[in-house]
Design a protein that fits this description.
The longest helix has 17 residues. This protein is globular. It has 21 helices and 31 strands. With 646 residues, the protein is an alpha/beta fold. It has an eight-stranded mixed β-sheet, sandwiched between helices. A seven-stranded mixed β-sheet has the order 5-4-17-16-18-19-20, with helices on both faces. Helices cover 31% and strands 23% of the residues. Helix 2 crosses helix 3 and helix 11 packs across helix 12. It has two domains: 491 residues, ANL, N-terminal domain (Rossmann fold); 122 residues, GMP Synthetase, Chain A, domain 3, CATH 3.30.300. Bound molecules: 5'-O-[(S)-butoxy(hydroxy)phosphoryl]adenosine. 5'-O-[(S)-butoxy(hydroxy)phosphoryl]adenosine binds next to helix 12, strand 20, strand 25 and strand 26. Keywords: Acetylation, ATP-binding, Ligase, Magnesium, Metal-binding, Nucleotide-binding. This is Acetyl-coenzyme A synthetase. It is an enzyme of class 6 (ligase). Its EC number is 6.2.1.1.
């Protein structure tokens, strides 16, 4: 672990919203009296009817229910759009930077209002009402934000599916929340390559019924099949409606969106976030973690298909009246300097990306960075996976030229927004540590039995009490919510992450302790990849684990047992990779496939993943006790045939 400490500069401490003393006072106040603390900070958004009740949350055992500001009413779209019209109608809300550097545009708050209203009218004309679920399968174009805010305006619940997921994955998500409408584009464009979004939607709808309307944004203008009566081009529908549409008064606890995420078992679960608590949290954390000030140009490089895009491209920044940059492309197209070219082109002050991007750019050396100015940059952020100290130092020294603090933000789809992170004017930085909890967040490290460990300690990370941005349930399956998050350590929210706390009280996230792997900041359930593999006719059994990967953080390592009579070959390996891509999507492609005549199982038939993980990690000496295996000899075979890392 890195021992280096970076102090807060006097400059930062003086200018930031929160310095060290203020952080201490806020944190203490939030722990002493959460009701009073959030009664005050809940007012950062506009309310139609103010709340009188602030916190009503229960982590069990028994009742698990989470309600914040429960008798208040508001509307998220009003807060992200309408309330800015008077003060900053002509300020840019969204800077859109296309995949092709010659394409970009700026949308003011006034234009955003007009677009969102028009979108809402198009949706409403097709029967979308409060509470209905709408699936979005879109590229990174402003229409994604318009459609999200249009749903929020009507009280409809959006479910965004990342454009890299396959028709099958999309179908499963449409079906789970019974969406009657899908919003997509003809094609997406990333790194100069086209993504057949509309064709994927057609294939998905062939597998599930119930979709009455498909709204298609023209992005590339490519020819796509349109089913009469079901499909409509957005521009044609929009020409028939006005750009005025009132925002519906929503209860604080009405659902805002569902976002599917992988767990350690079963199919992805629909994480449900509600209206007011989520928005308060997204806006509070966006302001303080990024020390956002009026006029700043802010860029988060995530995709809106992930929670980072929801909270820190759309909802947090727009609730704060910020200028948020939305990027359609990838860091390496048309050149490896693209991120920094975009920073210079738009004068970006705050830049938020993932460690995997930093590591891959690091591989190309300093020249592609140094050829750009980056003088507008003031703050850098990291999210999605642990950032190794080497990548941190490079980000700090080369990208930020030593002058920009790095906020390493730890959070999850479930948490709605950042929970553990430095505040740039308050927190000394240690490369590789997410540092300290934000006000309102009470982390707890527990041992395997659930006993709280105090002081410097390492164990599993729980959160002891609720915060406003917390997920409320698994859509349609509250029991799964309770089981997944509140049963391992009754009465506490279990994050699934391992964590160390050092003598300064700093938190160091060590990675998942369950069967979830983190590939390039994307979360993947090993069980999902396994079930895709065993669906292949030549596969009899599969076990999937993560292994350390230089760029991706973790890679996907699959042990595959073939059906009797099938022969291992490189062609079959390729066939299986293509199969998984088709079943789940490219992000689930196994990096390494090892054909294994047998898997290490206990006498009761349970696969011992601990052993498979160690072999994938090249830690042959640390296999532990193998005497309980039904056939200990399979381990020798697995070691002999270990696939080489790429
Ligand atoms: C998992 C959540 C947070 C939004 C994007 C990912 C890992 C996330 C960090 C960080 C170490 C991190 C955790 C977490 N993670 N941020 N700064 N340091 N690990 O959201 O897909 O829900 O994944 O990502 O393991 O549990 P997600």
């Amino acid at each position: 672990m890195s021992e280096k400490v970076y102090d807060v500069s006097a400059d930062w401490a003086g200018r930031a919203h929160i310095d060290a003393a203020k952080y201490g006072a806020m944190y203490e106040a939030s722990m002493r009296d959460p009701e009073a603390f959030w009664a005050e900070h809940g007012r950062r958004i506009d309310w139609m009817k103010p709340y009188t009740r602030v916190k009503n949350t229960h982590f069990g055992p028994g009742d698990v229910s989470i309600r914040w500001f429960e008798d208040g009413t508001t509307n998220v779209s009003h807060n992200c759009v309408d309330r800015h019209l008077e003060t900053r109608g002509d300020q840019v809300a969204i800077i859109w930077e296309g995949d092709d550097p010659s394409e970009s545009k700026k949308i003011t708050y006034r234009e955003l209002h007009s677009e969102v209203c028009r979108w809402a009218n198009v949706l409403r004309n097709r029967g979308v009402e409060r509470g209905d679920r709408v699936t979005l399968y879109l590229p990174m174009i402003p229409e994604a934000a318009y459609a999200m805010l249009a749903c929020a305006r009507l009280g409809a619940v959006h479910s965004i599916v990342f454009g890299g997921f396959s028709p099958d994955s999309l179908a499963g998500r449409i079906e789970d929340c019974a969406s009657k409408m899908v919003i997509t584009a003809d094609e997406g464009l990333r790194g100069g390559r086209k993504v057949p979004l509309k064709a994927n939607v057609d294939a998905a709808i062939e597998r599930v019924g119930g979709v009455d309307h498909v709204v298609v944004v023209r992005r590339t203008g490519g020819a796509v099949a349109m089913t009469p009566g079901r499909d409509v081009y957005y521009d044609e529908a929009a020409a028939m409606v006005t750009d005025e549409c009132p925002a519906v008064e929503m209860n604080a606890e009405d659902p805002l969106f569902i976002l599917y995420t992988s767990g350690s078992t079963g199919k992805p679960k629909g994480v449900l976030h509600t209206t007011a608590g989520y928005l308060v949290w997204a806006s509070f954390t966006h302001q303080y973690v990024f020390d956002y000030h009026e006029g700043d140009i802010y860029w988060c490089t995530a995709d809106v298909g992930w929670v980072t895009g929801h909270s820190y491209i759309v909802y947090g920044p727009l609730a704060n009246g910020a200028t948020t940059l939305m990027f359609e492309g990838i860091p390496t197209y048309p050149s490896i300097s693209r991120f920094w070219d975009v920073v210079d082109k738009h004068g970006v002050n705050i830049f938020y990306t993932a460690p995997t991007a930093i590591r891959s750019l690091m591989g190309a050396g300093e020249d592609p960075v140094k050829r750009t100015s980056r003088k507008s940059l003031r703050l850098l952020g990291s999210v999605g996976e642990p950032i190794n100290p080497e990548a941190w130092e490079w980000y700090h020294r080369v990208v930020g030229e030593g002058r920009c603090p790095i906020v390493d933000t730890w959070w999850q789809t479930e948490t709605g927004g950042i929970l553990i992170s430095p505040l740039p004017g308050a927190t000394k930085l240690k490369p590789g540590s997410a540092t300290l909890p934000l006000p309102g967040v009470k982390p707890m490290i527990v041992d395997a039995e659930g006993k709280e460990l105090t002081g410097a300690a390492e164990g599993n990370l729980c959160i002891a009490d609720s915060w406003p941005g917390q997920m409320r349930t698994v859509y349609g399956d509250h029991e799964r919510f309770v089981q997944t998050y509140f049963s391992t350590y009754p009465g506490k929210y279990f994050t699934g992450d391992g964590c160390r706390r050092d003598a300064d009280g700093y938190y160091w996230i060590t990675g998942r302790v369950d069967d979830v792997i983190n590939v390039s900041g994307h979360r993947m359930g090993t069980a999902e990849v396994e079930s895709a593999l065993v669906a292949h006719p030549k596969v009899s059994e599969a076990a999937v684990v993560g292994y350390p990967h230089d760029i991706k953080g973790q890679g996907i390592y699959a042990y595959v047992t073939l059906m009797a009579g099938e022969t291992p070959s490189d062609d079959l390996r390729k066939e299986l990779v293509a199969w998984v891509r088709r079943e789940i999507g490219p992000i689930a492609s196994p990096d390494l496939i090892q054909f294994a005549p047998g898997l290490p199982k206990t006498r009761s038939g349970k696969i011992m993943r601990r052993i498979l993980r160690k072999i994938a990690e090249d830690e042959f000496g640390a296999l532990g006790d193998t005497s309980t295996l039904a056939d200990p000899a399979v381990v020798d075979d697995l070691i002999t045939n270990r696939q080489n890392k790429r």
